[in-house]
Specification:
By secondary structure, the chain is an alpha/beta fold. It is built from 13 helices and 21 strands. The chain binds cytidine-5'-monophosphate.
Length: 401
Amino acid sequence: MLAGRRIVLGVSGGVAAYKAAYLARRLVEAGAVVRAVMTQSAGQFLGAQTLAAITGEHPVEDFWDEVEVSPHTDLGQWADAMVIAPATAATIAKLATGLSDNVLIATALATEAPLVVAPAMHTEMWENAATQRNVETLLADGVMIVGPLSGALAGGDTGPGRMVEPEAIVAALEEALAGAPARARVLDLAGYKVLVTAGGTREPIDPVRFIGNRSSGKMGNAIAAEAASRGAQVTLITAAAPPSGSAVDVVSVETAQQMADATWSRVADVDVAILAAAVADFRPTGVGDSKLRRGDGLPVIDIEPTPDILAGIAAMENRPYLVGFAAETGSLEGARRKATEKGVDLLVGNDVSRAGSGFATDTNEVTIYTSSGESDSWPLLSKPEVARRLWDRILEDRTPG
Ligand code: C5P
């Protein structure tokens, strides 16, 4: 996607400018041709020589020192896409009003290529009404805004305002180049590693028959896709069809044992595990290689328990944040009990016997239980909306204060 594309990298003056060097490298590695343009204050944080060494050309720093008569229009016309990272409050304000008093803003005004902006500033400045107004203006103008994240800021402060990681900016640039409509991407799950299980397992009775259930994998797919779109690195272990067009690593399995093996071997590495799969609780024992025949009389099928994937994770010493699901019919009392007994952080209970809720539907009506027994009942929502709220809730839980 980026190979051979001409990218103008604008760098304005914030401490996150050091990450612009890494961004330039990622773009060059992806095959893009990169030209940088810096504001004067960016030079206080990042050496022009560093960008020159990475991109192969000296960055444009001023209107006047250049060989070119009109460096801003040259660059603007040359670009397939432009990205400003970091974008300070001042740069955003100037972009929003068209105040072209430096070569970076002039280049942004002179280009017709898609523009991606990665804000970075202190929380108070980001939350200031003027900045928020300016961001709204940029969005309305078709500019793609990526971030900021909540996290460590200059001077030991923490809060919203931290520039997203270069990987997230590359992803946003690819979207912009593909013609995606501008939208704010708050990549609040960037840096998170996430594991999701989905679908209903199938336990063989013989080589052609199985014990299964009605789970479609839609809820787990929505949770995985939502996490990926918010910047997480997602592994989806599924016994159903995975979501199309989402950037998730898919591991396809069939039985509870395969799902357990796939999950347990990967879960030590993740920050959050969400077990949305409907895992069979029992499986037939002694399954042979030939089909059971009617003529042989009624078979006796012995069953044994399957591994409890969730219990295995709950018992880990350094377990990830753990979310379980409970499909109930009728009362959700069982879900409340499981929330306190299973060693999870959250349990999502749903009554699968209700219309529009549970298996194979596009909607779900769920109640969220905490391990201390508190509950929150959500209305009937689309599964992507349930996924969005679930991730909001998890982030709230994980971010103290
Ligand atoms: O107790 P119950 O089967 O209702 O618990 C459901 C939760 O446990 C779900 O999150 C499901 O993915 C998980 N589970 C599991 N391994 C099993 C059965 C269920 O991880 N063998």
